[in-house]
Amino acid sequence: MNATTPTFAAAVCIGRFQGLHLGQLAVIRRALALAPRVVVVIGSAFQARSPKNPFTWAERVEMIRLALSADEAARVGFLPVRDHYDGQRWVQAVREGVQAQLGTLPPGQTVLVGHHKDATSTYLDDFPGWLLDDVGSQGALHSSAVRDALFGAAGHPLEPALAALVSQVPPSTIDFLRAWAQLPCYRELGTEWASLRAEKALWASAPYPPVFVTVDALIQCAGHVLLIVRDRAPGQGLFALPGGFLEPRETVYQSALRELHEETGLHLLPADIAHALKGVRVFDHPDRSARGRVITHAHHFDLGQRPLPEVQGSDDARSAQWVPIADLAAMEDRFHDDHFHILDSFLGLTA
């Protein structure tokens, strides 16, 4: 499309905006040029803070608003959307959220503004009925570079890192990052960022990018699930399912039981745990783990209504505890990686 394109009733922009840069701002302003009303969809909306998702969705909204003029900001609405790691559910959530803000518009009156930059942009083709305005490349700008500069400066003077971003981000974002770096989480995330960088450096000489295989155990009992609190980065201090890496001489089932016992002390008779197994699902979204490409096999066990067995955190777990299923939905932003979504997949927490 070009500048002579007629005005649409509404425009939609979709992104994570985890470090607003000038390319993203250009996309939003293109949407504002095409329609009087714009909805900016904020992805990964309810994740726990991590080096990849350091900013809450409300903080990202603030970054965008600060970069717009008052007149522009008055025409923009924001829609936070969680990562369902399920394409159909995610598209449905976006459509329903946009409709809730804009109402039902005639066909051809909604334009989706974005850019097919790589495989992560295929979602742009998942909205039939919305016309696509591909704005093309906005330069070699990436939010990951903003985050790397920010966390690389943790423990060091921040101003040189911010100065290096001047050509990539709006001035208001520089000011936002300067203020945000005063939060206690900044140094903690900087430490985790450095830990992840060091871990990935160990695999830098591998002939192919590594693909890790892990296991997780979802133990359900009397209206509760068994969770650990992680004692190591990544995700130190966050809730997670008991689990870990697949051992070379184990099946995924054997690894799941071993990790369960090592991290929680839970031990049941082999026949009891085998009878309790209700299903195994593979979670393999390319972006599910901060470590890189990690494919996990989640085992769902239901122990019925028996009294809750005693558990105690050990190994990689700071603690282990039984948590009421009814409490899980309010804990979404306290989970490591996609573990909330694994629970959601089995238990229907957000249905």
Automatic annotation (TrEMBL):
The keyword Ribonucleoprotein does not apply. The keyword Hydrolase applies. Transmembrane segments: none annotated. InterPro entries: Cyt_trans-like, NUDIX_hydrolase-like_dom_sf, NUDIX_hydrolase_dom, Rossmann-like_a/b/a_fold. Keywords: Hydrolase, Nucleotidyltransferase, Transferase. Residues 210-346 form the Nudix hydrolase domain. Pfam families: CTP_transf_like (PF01467), NUDIX (PF00293). GO terms for molecular function: hydrolase activity; nucleotidyltransferase activity. PROSITE patterns: NUDIX. This is Bifunctional NMN adenylyltransferase/Nudix hydrolase. The lineage of its organism: Bacteria, Pseudomonadati, Pseudomonadota, Betaproteobacteria, Burkholderiales.
